[in-house]
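Recap from last week: sequence in, structure out.
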Amino acid sequence: MKVAVIGGGASGMMSATMIARKGHEVTLFEKNEKLGKKIYITGKGRCNVTNATVGDEFLKNVVNGKKFVMGAITRFNSTDTCEFFSEVGVPLKIERGNRVFPESDKSSDIIFGLEKAMRWAGVNIRLNSEVKKIILKEDKISGIVVGEKELNFDAVVVATGGISYPATGSTGDGYEFAKSVGHSIISPVPALCAIKLKSSECKQLEGLSLKNVKLFAKQENKIIYESEVGEMLFTSSGISGPIVLSMSSFINRFEMNKIVLYIDFKPAISHDGLIARIDRDIINLKAKQTSSLLEGLLPKSLIPHFAKRLGIKLTEKANQLNKEKRKSIANLLKNYEYLPLSLENFNSAVVTAGGINLKEVNPKYMKSKLVSNLYFVGEVLDIDALTGGFNLQLAFSTAVTCANDFKDIKE
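Predicted structure tokens:
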């Protein structure tokens, strides 16, 4: 069979390799001048290529499409990914949180490894080749249009990614291809991104990093998301960091003006336990100012803002704080409120949530239910996961699952 793979990212290169290994004539089309542009910037240039967890532990980190990808990550999991890169000469290492990186800490090694695998398998790689459309004839794809030329193919794999980091070439082409043959698209929204806040505090707190804190979001006083204990930081316009990125993936379908965000600065201590600690600290501080009390509880740059919200003077003697003020300090430490303005846009979102409607794709082979010889893999689908290598693993797993539908015709 002659197979066209559209997109030279993680899922495209992996599907092209696996299909070509079965003896099929595979051509990969990439509109950029080089392969793997988005891979190059992942993990701050180090490329967190997968996560060394499997089965249910892996699925816990899938936000959208958990049931859909279950079979795919069973057929080709993180262990298989590590073996694949070992075979192409890219040694890997496991770091905190089971995150897997190339030993060299260079994302370029992952790209070179995938390119090497394709060349070994005999894939024809066409760079600077933008696919304009896919051609549908009698309910089957007959080929694609590249530039002004119509090229015939027996099957087409769409691996064009989402619309996050559009500078890397992820501009939503795959959605248009899918819509042109009758597929519906779940509206794309940014995921794994920073959150902008309606607060003048951010500019003054820019660069402040908080550790061992917890975030939660409420809508109409009901908790809609609660983070793990972790790290976050203030930007000039809002908040970012690991627990913020995770939160964004769970609140990106809600109306921001109906959500309230809260920071728990002391998640390891109960409310009553915090009041008891404040009482003990005040006794130890004796006649010192309230500023000294708060310095033992918060980063210094946060203290003026915290005191302003409480309506207390930092020069006030700590031992003169009455029971209600002490209770208010504990309440605010556990529930420091911010109103979200919006999520950051696709230019800085790590992945896209939304995409091709999973109801219209057969998860056994990532095959269109509407067109018999059309496949979708990777981020173009309505699947996304948390940070830590899970999204790249989904790209690889869906790619290999797609390739499983092609018969082995090698002699």
